[in-house]
Amino acid sequence: MRDTLLNAPRRYSRPLQVGSVTVGGDAPISVQSMTNTDTRQVAETVAQIQALAAAGADIVRLSCPDSESALAVGEIVRQVSVPLIADIHFDYRLALLALQQGVAGLRINPGNIGSRQRVAEVVRAARERRVPIRIGVNAGSLEKDLLARYGEPCAEAMVESALQHIRILEDLDYPEIKVSLKASQVGMTVTAYRLLARQVEYPLHLGITEAGGLLTGTVKSSIGLGLLLAEGIGDTLRVSLSADPVEEVRVGFAILKALGLRSRGVTIVSCPTCARQSVPVIELVARLEECLAHIREPIQVAVMGCVVNGPGEARESTVGLVGGEGGNLLYRDGKPVGKVEDGEALPRLLAEVEAAAARWRAEQRAAG
Predict the structure, then answer these.
(1) What is the pLDDT of residue 293?
(2) Are 177 and 132 in contact (CB under 8 A)?
């Protein structure tokens, strides 16, 4: 099926490496999340990182509020494969420790970790390892002089803050930079990114900060990030939720898939249900989302309650189930292959998706 996309051409950004992941340029837009465990608790933190990686996270960030946390990162790095970014505030020595432990990236604001000499030490250590630095501007923690000048947090103040921090790294001749401009207000965030995108060519990390719980945060992030991504702005993203971090990854991929920018995992097309439904769509979809979360191959599954729109959606899907008075009709690669009773629907759909994923992997191997 030919996609009709609203996306503008992607903004050019200077590519950089976060471990094995390319951010910027024409690389796929990467999805990030952040652990909420105590970084000093290595086993617990490793388990959460592995869960995030299994959900599809390309990059994971950890908070390092003290030296014990920064030192623990070394053992964590050795136990996981996903690139790790150390989140550092105020103390430049923590950034140096984290770099020594093998992190793939730093999230700092150069202006709040001490004197120019201390910033230069961090840059020197980052340069030796070619570790990029993300400048993270948040509306809730803008510099006092900017708040005094602008009167309140606003997009223009956020951009000015970012440019000040960027100049520090540019003066030190270190271009391995990416930038984020996050606010809890969608409009402020979108405006800030639009303004900065016209002024620099560094990769942009998108996010709506303090977005809220699973429902509210998903809605706000989908609107804000969706607007920017559709305009071609953004190279990596995090959906910030007061929820299990795994949900951040799932929502991030759902946003990218809705815009046709990533195709990882199962996409479920399902009807909202009405009196015509002759298959338990809601229950079936909930179970499918749970049971197919591990699938990485791009598989589309249609679950439709009746024959009004069902056959059309099933024909455009890898696997489909359409309810009908004479029984539920199962589709494979757009063609009906037989009828399925309600009680058999879930296991048959799961088996069909697993088989489709196996076929996709075999085709990829055959293609080289």
Answers:
(1) 86
(2) yes
